[in-house]
Task: inverse folding
């Protein structure tokens, strides 16, 4: 097998970054029609229901009190997604674990 063909068979991850509401999810949904691509959107529902608590809502209502808790949970959920093994060779993700840290965590410290 040629090296260029080997490169195409190697699994890889593409991270889509952007501002809140910029169309990241819409962009990712375009790739749902391809069988060799797994789409992992931000796990917003997990943030809205953490054992019955809406951490996202808490963070928006009282960021001084809830930013650290919320961002800690975001980091855990994003790490889970980064580590998730897919059945496809291409994984498209919304935001990286690094953007959560550098764009949200350090901004709120």
Result:
């Amino acid at each position: 097998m040629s090296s260029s063909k080997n490169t195409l068979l190697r699994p890889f991850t593409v991270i889509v970054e952007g501002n809140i509401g910029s169309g990241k999810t819409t962009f990712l949904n375009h790739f749902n029609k391809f069988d060799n691509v797994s789409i992992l959107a931000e796990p917003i529902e997990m943030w809205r229901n953490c054992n019955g608590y809406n951490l996202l809502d808490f963070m928006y209502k009282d960021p001084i009190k809830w930013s650290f808790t919320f961002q800690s949970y975001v980091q855990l959920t994003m790490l889970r997604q980064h580590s998730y093994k897919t059945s496809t060779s291409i994984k498209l993700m919304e935001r990286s674990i690094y953007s959560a840290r550098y764009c949200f965590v350090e901004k709120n410290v």
